[in-house]
């Protein structure tokens, strides 16, 4: 039976329905990018208010698209964290209301577990165990995944997340927010090799990352009155440095764990150069490589519906337990059976 999921952790309001037998039944999404663009970043209070305005319409549309009613559901999942607390509370409250009214189990989902399991929405799906590279606006994580809720952190960013580095670098070059996709587009016309930026922390062992220095290197390289071509060349150099750094660490993680597959998820997973670079690596290693479709790399409710379904399928979570949390380390998650 289908699980309804709501995602409101940041600046996307989304709803989706996932069924174990029939797969993803529907998903709807509204992005607040235009709302926050003039501020150059997400304004938390505006985000919460807009989630309230949109959430009911989006969840009704998801139900209508799947020709389902509340009485057809087997559970309601929502993103409980990490994220903006006021924004999270909107999805949590609506999900709790539906669960209470229809006597359904309420499933609190970790946003990064959602990102991590997003490749499960594709065909073919990856098989456990695998290495996951999670590259989003707020996280850069390398995780060994043995199953749902069986996560070992291999490495993480000690400062900026990759998406954040993309966004800050794009902002320095005068590109609109969120800058990642704009910077990637600019890099298309850039000359490779004109700017060579550092590959941070690749010259020593370990799987941690650091991206804040790269941003400074770009700022130093950016000439006053830079031409469009200068900017494109710098964007290309930045993208090369980031993708090579990520690829080097993925290679090490595959070697260290002995896992035969790599999955990449989170917004930066939509980056074409990163996808191509990791495809080379996987081919060289004879490893499987799995991505969500680009629309499921960035925030969406389909991944939350899948994660909620996966947890409900293995153990019925306690009904009516409502919580939200701004911070929630992924390693604290436990497999579904342990949670029962
Ligand atoms: P988190 O999941 O850590 O809470 P988030 O939900 O804000 O953060 P996502 O929605 O997963 O992050 O991803 C958004 C990030 O992905 C932004 O930083 C954006 O610039 C970046 N991004 C999206 N598309 C691309 C692309 N093609 N190239 C590079 N970066 C991209
Ligand atoms: Mg977003
Ligand atoms: Fe996200």
Automatic annotation (TrEMBL):
Keyword hit for Iron = yes
Where is the protein localized?
A: Cytoplasm
Q: What's its catalytic activity? A: L-threonylcarbamoyladenylate + adenosine(37) in tRNA = N(6)-L-threonylcarbamoyladenosine(37) in tRNA + AMP + H(+)
Give the main localization category. Answer: cytoplasm
- Is-annotated flag, keyword Membrane? no
Task: Supply the InterPro entries for this chain.
Answer: ATPase_NBD, Gcp-like_dom, KAE1/TsaD, TsaD
GO terms assigned for molecular function:
iron ion binding; tRNA N(6)-L-threonylcarbamoyladenine synthase activity
Task: List positions binding substrate.
Answer: 134-138, 167, 180, 271
Q: Which residues form the Gcp-like domain?
A: 24-306
Q: Which residues bind Fe cation?
A: 111, 115, 299
What GO biological process term is on the record, naming one? tRNA threonylcarbamoyladenosine modification
Q: How are cofactors bound according to the entry's free-text note? A: Binds 1 Fe(2+) ion per subunit.
The cofactors required by this protein are: Fe(2+)
Question: What EC designation does it have?
Answer: 2.3.1.234
Question: Which Gene Ontology CC terms are recorded?
Answer: cytoplasm
Q: Name one Pfam family in it.
A: TsaD
Source taxon at top rank? Bacteria
Its name, as the record gives it, is tRNA N6-adenosine threonylcarbamoyltransferase
Annotated source species: Hydrocarboniphaga effusa AP103
Q: What is the lineage of its organism?
A: Bacteria, Pseudomonadati, Pseudomonadota, Gammaproteobacteria, Nevskiales
